[in-house]
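Q: Hi! First time doing this. I have a protein sequence and I read that you can turn it into a structure. Is that right? Here it is:
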Amino acid sequence: MSSSCSIKKSDTHGILVASFTNGQIKPEKSNALKFRYFTEKEKGGQNDEKKTRKVLVAERDTSTCKTYVGDSTDITAPSQLYKYYVGVRNKRTGKMKVYDADLFNMIPQLNVTEKQEVKPQITSLSYTDKMKELTKAFGSTKRQRAVELSQRNAIQTDVLDSAIGSAVDHAISQDNFKEITAKPSTDDSNDCLPPHHAEVTSPEDIYKVEDIIGVREMEALTEICRKFFDYKTDEFKNSEGYSTFIMNRLPILPLDEDRRWLKCKCLMYIHMLTTLYRKRANELREKDILPKEWPDKVKYSILQQFTLKIEGDGTRKPVRCLSIRMKDKIILHILVLCLIVDNFTLEYSDIAKDLKIGATRMPLLLRSVGCQIKVRVINKTSVKTAHLIAPLQLPEKNLIMGKRRK
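A: Yes, that's right. Below is the predicted 3D structure, encoded as structure tokens:
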């Protein structure tokens, strides 16, 4: 789109045009500059006419360069032979006014006094440090790299001491520090066992479901266990990913309602403990560790019994973790519940696969809860079963930690 305009010479004062030698000023930062304009009459000789010297000063509040100075006498000689004009066009009327222009080359006045004060004092260095400085300045590339590598790998004693001290102070400030240090070291695995009664004469009385799961938790499991209670082979869908042990026991649940409900709740609790056992460390840092559809009472009880809570330090939120001892505790509780489901005679090959426990370690775990291992030959195949014997006889030493696979 073309447009025409008329030009009119204006007799008003000229326009100052400034160019900065170190770059362009960003439009959004142009308001930070404050300009001052100075003029001075100069006389070169007796017969010379007075010349006008013009100086433009721009100031801003920065640490590196606070002042720019432009002098009309700094313009090169050929450029002084020309006269410069600036035209300003009015968009509304289409008229343009032409003004005389004065050019200023703005030179930054750098503040170098602060940098000179920061010069390193070579005289205060040791002989070794002086040699390193000389090598860095005049040595070969190989020696310069060696000096830089040694300086990068050097650890100052005070830095190391402060780091260790801060770590110890942080550990002592935790709420669970006294609790952890107060526990005597022991190799006894009985603290991982479920509640038990050793002096009874019947295997059914050694481990009670109410003691392992809890009465309130048993009531809370009723609704979520209804799908187990109403199990039908053709209609049941394993959408929750139940383990092989659970899927093999559902078709053979007893018909008696009380016993059926009891074993259904045991199977569901086994599923919950197996789910927690399979959790990875990063999954334990999530807000909801266990599925939302599980009863809150049961989830709270499981987390309190089988996980360790690490309190935050103000900047980090509290997280839970599974120690080796907590994992052993989960396994022993699962095995005892499996014994209850199988009437205290357990063929443990499927539960061993579910928990990914080797053939050597599984018998040790079962002996830790008071079982005896027997081998039967069925169709020319050796089948190992665990039998809970009353009265309860626990091993004198810890079989779990002593034979743990490295």
